[in-house]
Amino acid sequence: MRYLALSCLVMAAAAQSADAASPAEVRGKAGMVASRSALASEVGADVLRRGGNAIDAAVATGFALAVTYPSAGNIGGGGFMVIRLADGSVVTNDHRERAPAAADHDMFLDDDGDVIQGLSTHSHLAVGVPGTVAGLLDVHERYGQLERSAVIDPAIALARDGFVVDDDLAGQFRRHMPRLERYPASRAVFARPDGAPLAAGDRLVQSDLADTLGRIREHGHDGFYRGATAELLVAEMERGEGLITLEDLASYESVWRDPIRGTYRGHEIVSMPPPSSGGVLLVQMLNMLEPHDIGGFGYGSAAATHRIIEAERRAYADRAHHLGDTDFYPTPIATLVDKAYAAQRFADFDPARASRSEDIGHGTIPNESPDTTHVSVMDGDGNTVAYTTTLNLSYGSKIVVPGAGFLLNNEMDDFSIKPNTPNAYGLLGDEANAIAPGKRMLSSMTPTIVLRDGEPLLVTGSPGGSTIITTVLQVVMNVIDHGMDLSDAVGKPRFHHQWQPDRVMVEPFGFSPDTVAALEAMGHEGIDTIRWGRGIGDANSVMRRDGELLGVSDPRGAGRAVGL
Ligand code: DON
What is the largest CA-CA distance in the chain? Predict the structure, then answer.
């Protein structure tokens, strides 16, 4: 049942994209920005035109998304950035939300130990300590070329002057108003004075948000984590019996982490380490699949699909048991991304039969081994940024901080709030991802860069909760195994399996009838075509080919790639 939440989420994403036309492939030489918002991509491209590098552009796009794509773009949430610098080095910035210091292992359970429905998603307790502002500022300070004002001013202008709401945003406001309007400050931003949701053609002006962004421009971290913004956020927490304190905010720091690295058919994969599960699972699945002739079987073939499903089943089982914030729990990363471990994990694979998830436990680790949105950017020098950011569900907790104008996340639901109890994406978890004060909740966000001969080939990532990792897997395999151009690699139908529930979700036209028949004959049960549109993921991606940059906004979303 809970898995329906995922279906609803994907449905919402699909519904908003139904009438959205996206350009197929945008070309450029000197830079490319692909994001879910045309206005935000323009901001990023403009920063590149003015001499900024890919890091400046990604940060400026990130701040702009908080204004133009408020369901997921944010300053009240968190994200991950994977950065490949022109000198070849790769770093990642983790600015995932943290549990407040007063958070407790069982904070979402009643006295009988049962989950209190809705508390981890729609309440002030659902809010993790936001990390986005720390992350964007730290990344910019370390690697940007332009002044801080140059990467925040465009967002301030969009918030202060407003912009015209399009059909896409208007549809979102309409769908989410029943929850948004519970909070007067949220209603004041996203509805007309009479309470009706802003409609296409209306102007969305966000003066309080402009002021908050102005404080960040003036005071950096302190403009958000101390002073007026922090006080407004904590006042809202006190009003709604939330946990975040001034101390939680003042002590928040983004973390620089080494990327997850893997190889796949001569390509190098660099992606996000825990507290994301994305990079680990992506590399683990690619390792399981590498010995198999996926390209030879062909895109959409039963043989390739069967192998991918079985790899997904095993990797997601490991996620549920092993993965969590490595600062709190000893996740066996080195083993999980090891090719020998993948071979051992896939040893019971039967080319003729589906396994059953209930028979696939998590792998045994030998004792000795230890409404999200994605932006892809490349500049002409080879600086490359994969940036995924989120409030968790669309519009997060739906709570706008009164006087500060930004939405708060509901990321606490990404913790395992009770062992083996599905979260909003149907994902299971255990002690590795249990709540603890200051801990970061496990994520599926998978900002990823693929390198060939040491040079960036592809930058990709996606929203979609648990489906993020399988979306990125398929985009990468479409390029490497099937040799697709970028628009096909991103546009082709996707499918998804996540161990539990034991079913395959597929986009319309994803499987031919004889592929479905072949999979069912192997024992794959519950093959479920998404009937509400075209939406698993929204993988705005950039690729470099023959010295040219190609950008694609996923046709499932209403974003845009802008090149120069
Ligand atoms: O971090 C995660 O894995 C989730 N909070 C991501 C949420 C998401 O992708 C929502 N978008 N559809």
Answer: 64
Exactly one of 212, 305, 331, 372 is catalytic; which is it?
372
pLDDT digits (tens, 9 = 90+) for 83-136: 999 999 999 999 999 999 999 999 999 999 999 999 999 999 999 999 999 999
Query: Using CA positions, which residue lies closest to atom 10 of ligand 1?
Result: 371
Which ligand 1 atom is nearest residue 411's CA? 5
Instruction: Respond yes or no: is residue 92 known to be catalytic.
Output: no
In a domain, 345, yes or no: yes
Place of tokens 């730290």: 138
- Residue located via tokens 């995922």: 6
Ligand 1 mutation pick, 468, 469, 470, max ligand atoms within 8 A of CB? 468
How far, in Å, CA of 220 to CA of 208, rounded? 17
CA 470–ligand 1 middle distance (angstroms): 13
Q: What are the φ/ψ torsions at residue 316 (nearest 5 degrees)?
A: -70, -30
Q: Whose CA is nearest to atom 2 of ligand 1?
A: 443
Task: Report if residue 484 sits inside a domain.
Answer: yes
Question: Looking at residue 371, what is its pLDDT?
Answer: 85
**pLDDT score at 1:** 27
Q: What is the pLDDT of residues 6-25, one digit of tens each?
A: 433 333 333 333 333 445 79
CA of 384 to the centre of ligand 1 (A): 22
Q: How confident is the model at residue 275 (pLDDT cuts 50, 70, 90)?
A: very high
The response to whether residue 392 sits with its C-beta less than 6 Å from ligand 1 reads yes
Query: In a 3-state reduction of DSSP, which class is residue 380?
Result: coil
- Give the residue, out of 392, 409, 410, 433, with the most ligand 1 atoms within 8 A of its beta carbon, to mutate for a pocket test: 392
Instruction: Give the CATH number for residue 274.
Output: 3.60.20.40
For ligand 1, whether the C-beta of 465 sits within 6 Å is yes
**Helix, coil or strand: residue 448:** strand
Distance (Å, whole) CA 280 – CA 284: 6
Tokens of 64: 């702009």
Complete DSSP assignment for 295-330: HHH-TT-HHHHHHHHHHHHHHHHHHHHH-S-TTTS-
Q: How many domains does the chain have?
A: 1
Give, in order, the Cα–Cα distances in Å from 397 to each of 120, 258, 408, 459, 468: 9, 31, 6, 30, 21
* 248 domain-assigned: no
**Domain range for residue 268?**
257-371+444-563
Residue 216 lies in a domain: no
Residue 18: per-residue pLDDT: 31
Ligand 1 atom nearest 392 alpha carbon:
5
The DSSP 8-state label assigned to residue 277 in this structure reads S
- In whole angstroms, give the CA distance from residue 288 to residue 339: 7
pLDDT for 9: 38
Cβ atoms of 408 and 481 within 8 Å: the answer is no
DSSP string over 512-541: -HHHHHHHHHHT---EEE--SSS-S----E
The pair of three-digit structure tokens given for residue 432, joined into one six-digit string: 């590795």
Instruction: Locate all alpha helices (DSSP H) within 400-536, ordered by sequence.
Output: 467-480, 486-491, 513-522
Question: What is the value of pTM for the model shown?
Answer: 0.94
